[in-house]
Amino acid sequence: MKKGVWVLSKSDKWYKPNFQYGLREVTRIVTHSDNAFIPCKDNDGLDTYINTNEVECITSFDMEDL
Questions:
Q1: Domains and CATH numbers, the chain
Q2: Helix and strand element counts for the chain (H, E)
Q3: Are 23 and 60 in contact (CB under 8 A)?
């Protein structure tokens, strides 16, 4: 996985938000937005969206290609 903030969905898929927010900002969006869509890239690099109701967890990696 690449460095940055990643979101894990309830269906065990990883997504990287398209915006440059940090972990705190992404967590705030997910916890305070009901049924909102976050623009992101999936693990294959394709553009998609994830619904905030489908988020299992949010994490941040500091190293490249873990």
A1: 4-61 (2.30.30)
A2: 1, 5
A3: yes
